[in-house]
Amino acid sequence: MKLAPEQLVEGLHDLPSPPAVVLDLLGTLEDDDIDISVLAKKVSLDPALTAKTLRLANASAFGLQVKVTTIQQAITFLGFQTMRNLITAAAVTGCFPTGRCSGFNDRAFWRHASASAVCARALARRMRFNQDVAFTAGLLHDLGQLVLVCSHPDAYSAVLAWRRQHDCPLIEAERAVLGVDHVDAGVALANHWHFSDVMRQAIARHHMPETPGAGMLAAIVHVADAIVHALDIAGAEDELVPPVSAVAWEAMGLNEEAYGYLFQETERQCEEMSAIMAA
Amino acid sequence: MSAADQAPAPHPAPSTAQQARLDYLFRHHLRDDPANAATHALRRCMESYRLAAAGEAEHRP
Question: Which of A167, A239, A260 sits opposite B25 (nearest CB)?
Fold first, then answer.
């Protein structure tokens, strides 16, 4: 049941691609040199993408005092950077069909991804790091799981069974059964969809943030991921907190009280977000 | 005044069920393993957070 690297890449071609405008955005997440009105027009041509993006924009996590009804209006109120990330989030979540893999809990996956996104953003704010990039990285960090689930559903069912039997981290079960893991699949997807380098690095290193050159974003996503597991947000019965990297933990530089506020913020904001993401 | 009268009020504690769930979530991490210091720091923060939440719930009208 081992997968060769080329089988990973072949599987990517079976996935629906995000709209072209979103692929542009994924490749330029850190650039400011994009024509906002052109972006708004392109997104508005896709009714499903527009609707989901506007639902996200109107989520209380973004603190809008008025309800926005157009992409242009949302950009005006939330800013271009935030909207760009919300458009990306809305589009990417729509690319993976659900219910294909026996034993895989799509709802729990999106609850974890949404909570990681809001937690990474909250950490980034305290670190004076780009919050929007952290939000997107938190949301996308485990996307490789969905690649494997959608491309090789039967094999991934075997991974889940192996994990239950051995009570081990998911990544260990993936390596044991498939010979590759969701990080490999996530990096393959990041290459296929031309994610920006910083996003690719965060996906590649979120389990090893102490690797030289991994960068602050990988550390933020790593800590956010561990926090969300510890907060037990996904609702998975066999939830397990992964080991936390001392390097990443120290890099956050937060005390117990600060973490308390961060946990509260994450729990409060993730409910609404995950409902939108999973829809 | 007896010693019992002078004793501070007991600190609100998370329910046994919550404590058991934390034990389960962190089941792969031995408490006194120095190589796992950051994971234990996260657990301590989580226990404090659950304690505070339990305290707040107790004082809520």
Answer: A239
